Amino acid sequence: MVARVSGVPASTLRYYEERGLIASVGRHGLRRTFEPRVVERLALIALGRAAGFSLDEIARIFASGGRPKIDRQLLAGKADELDHTIRQLSAMRDGLRHAAACPAPSHLECPTFRRLMNVAASGARAKKLGRRLAKR
After folding, report:
1. 100 three-class SS
2. What DSSP string describes 2-68?
3. CA dist 10 to 17, 30, 81, Å?
4. How far apart are CA 93 and CA 88, in angstroms?
5. Could you tell me which of 38, 26, 74, 80 has the C-alpha nearest to residue 53?
6. How far is CA 2 from the centre of its chain?
7. pLDDT by residue (tens digit) across 64-89?
8. Which residues are CB-neighbours of 15 under 8 A, at least 6 positions away?
9. What is the Cα–Cα distance from 14 to 32, expressed in whole angstroms?
10. Which CATH entry fits the domain spanning 2-61: 2.60.40.10, 3.30.420.40, 1.10.1660.10, 1.20.120.420?
11. pLDDT grade, residue 119 (50/70/90)?
């Protein structure tokens, strides 16, 4: 029933339950049963996921007695990350539009396209370095 009402697949509900994000209150045959408020909690989880929060970050929102306690600094930080991503994607979009209409005989002869390639390559190197540092 919750899967149908919320649009969240049963497998995801089971996973969220394993992670402690939601809790079933019993079973009706093979189906888990949930309190009606679980739909609201699933909507908060969906909002968090859409905004780019990890499940661990979302779990911290629900850590205190089941009532959501949303850290405003965490929200502001995520908004800043989104601003950065929007700027990057906007620059990429503008570069691609330029490349699509560029009069240069070859994209590799276009200085704007070459800058776009360099930015993409430096971003990939930065991500790789960030992953390496995070493992330490």
Report:
1. helix
2. HHHHH---HHHHHHHHHHTS----EEETTEEE--TTHHHHHHHHHHHHHTT--HHHHHHHTTTTTS-
3. 10, 12, 31
4. 9
5. 74
6. 23
7. 666 788 889 989 999 999 999 898 88
8. none
9. 9
10. 1.10.1660.10
11. confident
- Could you tell me the pTM of the whole model? 0.69
Nearest to 14 by CA among 42, 40, 37, 36: 42
CA–CA separation, 15 vs 43, rounded Å? 16
Length in residues, the chain: 136
Taking CA atoms, 64 is separated from 25, 50, 70, 89, in Å, by 18, 23, 10, 36
Please give the single-letter amino acid code of residue 32.
R
Q: Which helix (H) or strand (E) holds 71?
A: none
- Which residue has 């079933």 as its token pair? 24
pLDDT tens readout for residues 18-52: 998 988 888 888 788 888 889 999 999 999 999 99
What would the two tokens of residue 12 be?
């995801």
